[in-house]
Amino acid sequence: MSWVKKIISSYKEGEKLPSEALVDFFKRAKENKFNSFITLNDRVFDEAEILDRKVKEGKIEGKLFGIPVSVKDNILVKNLRVTCASKILENYIAPYDATVIERIKKEGALIIGKTNLDEFAMGSSNEYSYFGPAYNPYDTERVPGGSSGGSAISVANSEAVLSLGSDTGGSVRLPASFCNVYGLKPTYGAVSRYGLIAFASSLDQIGPFSKYIEDLEIIFDVIKGKDERDNTSVKYPDLKVEIKYPLKIGVLKDSFSDKVEDEIKEKLDEFILVLEKEGIAKFSEFEMESFEYAIAVYYIVACAEASSNLARYDGVRYGFKKGGESLLSMYEETRTLGFGEEVKRRILTGTFVLKSGYYEEYYLKAQKARTKILKEFMKNFEKFDLLLSPVSPTLPFKIGEKINDPVTMYLSDIFTVPVNLAGLPAIAFPYSFSKNNLPIGFQFIGKFFDEYLFFSILKKIENLFNLG
Predict the structure, then answer these.
(1) Sheet holding 182-185, edge to edge
(2) What is the pLDDT of residues 208-248, one digit of tens each?
(3) How far apart are CA 468 and CA 431, in angstroms?
(4) CA distance 49 to 449
(5) Pairing of strands 247-252, 386-390
(6) In terms of Cα–Cα distance, which of 8, 211, 229, 199 is closest to 98?
(7) Per-residue model confidence as pLDDT tens digits over 393-443
(8) pTM for the predicted model, two decimal places
(9) Are 424 and 445 in contact, with CB atoms under 8 Å apart?
(10) Which parts of 134-235 are beta strand (E)?
(11) Quick one: which H or E segment has residue 356?
(12) Coil, strand, or helix at residue 170?
């Protein structure tokens, strides 16, 4: 099923105009109790009226014609506020469109607003936002996952058909899993990062959310590919997906460890048994020696890059400014008052590991371990077509439950960060619910440029389990 195609079909059949379709989405975005948006785009109705005229002229063109799309508030949309959920950028207006925004606008998308996130995309719960936490649509006492929590909520609650987020260590996949939607972390370089405000440049990747797998494929078709303004972007290869069932799928042994909640393990077992019974896949367990080091490696690399990237926010050129008796006091007061606690913690950590004398001890060793993680993944892909694991070791947790214990919070990403360190693609997909009606999702991990293999197998699985 495709929600995108259904809406565009309603325009073609004369059942509805884009501005009429937009009304319900905008109302849900404006009136929801989940704090999913930081800024709503009031001008979107003017843009919809332009599309109305095209419908009346019979000029319905574009893969996303008249489709409401939400955008994480660390991606630039020209003339809209871009805050990164931080006081330091509270009133900053984007001077240009990110490449992904140019591409979806060209296909007729209507940008409904900018979604809530952890400050500068640093967090796993969406509690570290200057604009207040976002709330899980299945239980408002619990987190929606982070850092792209607002994007996941906006799709889950039908405030937008599609959303764009960013995934540095799991920030698309974790909220997708906690909010029962699909979330894709593309191959590093497959999607341009131009116009994405940098957190950790060697790990950051823009990724989409959707309720249905076919819609995820549609928006990925639009945003993928080489961009001359991003030297890390690449031309997406023209690959044909030919699947021979049953697929050989490796299941990470740690998926069944004591660190993973029992209900998640039970559902994973159930999922495996059904796919084997249907002849879709054969499963075998695999181990990764480097898995237990991935969290430590990630926080060394990500924090080091963050300390460098966020050095530009000093009160001189961007956003919030405080003090001024001397240049140094302006720097100190601006950054002390402008950044939240988690961002300051990561800047300090990053500055420490890059300090003279500690660089070789921490950062250099982390980079070597990163190479080992990639090699282990590639070795396993000699035996398997895909790899499978939970997205999170826990169900969505309560707001405030982990906020004072950053190490426990960081472990929420234990299954997602190795993928970012290796630059591989991965996709979170909804599967089932716990006894308390909390979403449970899993992730497939693929080789470089396996996104279309994800789409193919998940269309089959979506039909089998009636997902989405």
Answers:
(1) 37-40, 110-115, 68-72, 162-166, 206-210, 182-185, 426-433, 439-445, 386-390, 247-252, 281-286
(2) 999 999 999 999 999 999 999 999 999 999 988 888 999 99
(3) 9
(4) 38
(5) parallel
(6) 229
(7) 999 999 999 988 888 888 889 999 999 999 999 999 999 999 999 999 999
(8) 0.97
(9) yes
(10) 162-166, 182-185, 206-210
(11) none
(12) coil
Weakest mean pLDDT among 89-93, 296-300, 333-337, 355-359: 355-359
Among residues 36, 61, 242, the alpha carbon closest in space to that of 155 is found at 36
Residue type, 315: G
Burial of 27 (0-12, 13-18, 19+ CB in 10 A): exposed
CA distances from 4 to 15, 215, 219, 228, 458 (A): 15, 6, 10, 29, 17
Q: Quote the CA–CA distance of 58 and 18 in Å, as a whole number.
A: 13
The span from the CA of 43 to the CA of 48, in Å, is 9
DSSP state string for 119-139: GGG--SSS---TT----BTTB
Residue type for 355, please?
K
Residues, the chain:
468
Beta bridge partners of 433: 439
**How far, CA to CA in Å, does 458 sit from each of 184, 210, 417, 455?**
12, 13, 22, 5
- Mapped onto helix, strand or coil, the DSSP state of residue 99 is helix
Residue type, position 318, single letter: Y
Backbone CA torsion sign across 388, 405, 356, 343: positive
Tell me the residue type at 183: G
Q: How far apart are the first and last CA of the chain?
A: 9
Q: In whole angstroms, what is the distance from residue 174 CA to residue 368 CA?
A: 26
Contacts of residue 443, defined as CB under 8 A and 6 or more positions apart, other chains included, come to 173, 177, 388, 389, 390, 391, 415, 416, 419, 426, 427, 428, 429
Task: List all residues 6 or more positions away from 280 whose beta carbon is below 8 Å from its beta carbon.
Answer: 245, 246, 247, 457, 460, 461, 464
Dist. CA 146–CA 171, nearest whole Å: 5
The two beta strands, 281-286 and 247-252, are parallel
Residues labelled catalytic: 72, 147, 171
Across all residues in the chain, what is the average pLDDT? 95
Q: What is the rounded CA–CA span in Å between residue 391 and residue 395?
A: 10
Give residue for tokens 């921490």: 362
Closest CA to 168 of 146, 139, 200: 200
Look up residue 247 and give its two tokens: 């697929």
Provide CB contacts within 8 A for 289, sequence distance 6+: 376
CA 293 from centre of chain? 23
